[in-house]
Amino acid sequence: MPRPLPLLALSGLLLAGCAARGTPPPRVAIDTATRHGWEGLATADDQARIAALPTTWAAAKAAVGRRAARRMAAEGALLDPAAALDLPTPTPGTYWCRLVRIGGRAGYATFAPDYCYVDGDGAGVSFTKQTGQNLPGGWLYAANERRQVFLGTFRATASAEQPAYSTDPGRDVAGVVERVAPFRWRLVLTRAGKGALLDVYELIPAVPPGVGAVASVGR
Questions:
Q1: Cα(127)–Cα(28) distance, rounded to whole angstroms?
Q2: Residue 211 lies in a domain
Q3: Which of 39, 61, 117, 172 is 20 to 30 A distant from 140 in Cα terms?
Q4: Over the stretch 89-144, which tens digit does the pLDDT of each residue have?
Q5: Residue 133 CB-half CA count within 13 A
Q6: Is residue 210 included in any domain, yes or no?
């Protein structure tokens, strides 16, 4: 079982300052415990939710109205369940992570981007959402050539320590990470907020000013 993920809580101001200087924020510490396959770590509930993702995608897209369906179509590959490409692991660094919430009471909603951070070395790859109200963090595990499985938890505040996965079912969160275009990934969580069916995070590298815009992100 993974140990709690140590986090470096950074304010939006600090992150923005790092990006402006073209330097990454401090690395998130990596747990050096032996990595295992995700099936051996995921709870039975999370395994079932991941297996049910095709059905959940269909239900979420069917639950929105006609106007929202047009807005969803404008997102392109981000909200296309079949859009996953090879090389699904995001490269280490700072990302813009924009939440798109679909289905259920939420209907369809998008939110301003926050900052997330991907860290990795030989021990594993971690994902941490650093700003905003919803703060998932955890580890990525290889599933196949087009998918990484995310197993993590929600922490209450940016300064709080990340609870260990599977120690508190109320904070557990699972999902999948897929690359959907050059420089564009998505994290699909199987437990959504505000009565929604799916929370989908668009992940795009945060490019420092002066480097130029990221090309072909499919926005």
A1: 9
A2: no
A3: 61
A4: 999 999 999 999 998 776 899 999 999 999 987 778 999 999 998 899 999 999 99
A5: 5
A6: no
pLDDT digits (tens, 9 = 90+) for 80-90: 999 999 999 99
Question: How many other CB atoms are there within 10 angstroms of residue 19's CB atom?
Answer: 19
DSSP-based three-state secondary structure for 148: strand
Distance of CA 51 to the CA centre of its chain: 18
Domain total of the chain: 1
What does the alpha-carbon distance between residue 187 and residue 152 come to, in Å, rounded to a whole number?
Answer: 12
d(Cα 100, Cα 188) in Å, to the nearest integer? 10
pTM, to two decimals:
0.80
Contact between residue 183 and residue 80 where contact means Cβ atoms under 8 Å apart: no
Tokens of 170: 């109320």
Distance between CA atoms of 24 and 18, rounded to whole angstroms? 6
3-state secondary structure of 76: helix
Q: What is the CA radius of gyration of the chain?
A: 16
Q: Which two tokens stand for residue 17?
A: 């300052």
Strands (E), the chain: 93-102, 108-110, 114-121, 124-129, 136-144, 147-154, 172-181, 184-189, 198-205
Residue 195 lies in a domain: yes
- Pure H helices in the chain: 12-21, 44-51, 53-62, 66-74
Q: Which amino acid makes up residue 211?
A: V
pLDDT in tens, 40-82: 999 999 999 999 999 999 999 998 888 889 999 999 999 999 9
User: Is 144 contained in some domain?
Assistant: yes
